[in-house]
Design a protein that fits this description.
This protein has 214 residues and is α/β, with parallel strands linked by helices. Helices cover 42% and strands 24% of the residues. It is globular, with a radius of gyration of 18 Å. Its EC number is 2.1.1.-.
Length: 214
């Protein structure tokens, strides 16, 4: 179980304050409080998406920063499949993701993700853009990669710092992305400076396509 797993690593790495803090956050995420928080977050996401989706609109989803898979776990009653991505530069929680019966992979978001273009109906980006910027990697390259792997008329949910979200908004037109809605991230003290931006990728049409549709 999660408690024994964390205890084992505390015993072999008890000198690491960083690990102690991370282990505490993991135990908190696995608590009923954190599960309820993610359930509310997912419910809020779906309410924001509701005007744009039908029951079969969303099937293949990706959580770009899965941590312990709480986003996917909160979707257990919905007919969706979630790829949980554990960032390479953070704690390796992939085994914990597997222990919850979820699928996952480790990835470095400073590089492209190994998948076909237009694979996913929805991407969930929880502070991953801030993380990439902090590492000195290109935010623009990450946005282009996100555009590559989400299908036309698919969705991107960005939960990040306000300045990051404002920065992303500058690229919406160039990427043919439409802002579906924005919302404050919630009352949690650690997210006071964060906001949620829901985006829909538009279907690109050439001039010939436009003429053919008329």
């Amino acid at each position: 179980g999660i408690g024994l797993w964390i205890l084992f690593h505390l015993l072999i790495d008890s000198s690491s304050l960083g690990f102690l803090m991370w282990a505490y956050s993991c135990s908190q995420e696995h608590s009923g409080h954190m599960q309820e928080m993610w359930r509310r977050r997912v419910e809020d996401y779906w309410n924001m998406l509701a005007p744009k989706i039908r029951p079969d609109t969303l099937r293949n989803l990706m959580d770009m920063k899965a941590n312990m898979g709480s986003f996917a776990a909160a979707l257990k009653d919905k007919p969706v499949w979630v790829m949980n991505v554990v960032p390479e530069d953070g704690p390796n929680t992939l085994k914990l993701v597997y222990d919850r019966g979820l699928l996952g992979v480790i990835h470095n978001w400073c590089e492209s993700f190994s998948t076909y273009p237009r694979t996913y109906d929805l991407l969930h980006a929880w502070t991953i853009i801030s993380d990439v910027e902090r590492r000195g990697c290109s935010v623009e390259d990450l946005l282009i990669e996100m555009d590559r792997i989400v299908r036309p008329q698919g969705f991107i949910i960005i939960r990040d710092k306000r300045n990051i979200v404002d920065y992303i908004k500058k690229y919406l037109t160039a990427l043919h992305w439409e802002a579906v809605g924005t919302a404050d991230s919630g009352p949690a003290s650690e997210e006071e400076d964060m906001t949620v931006l829901v985006i829909q990728k538009q279907l690109w049409l050439t001039s010939e396509s436009v003429r053919d549709s008329e």
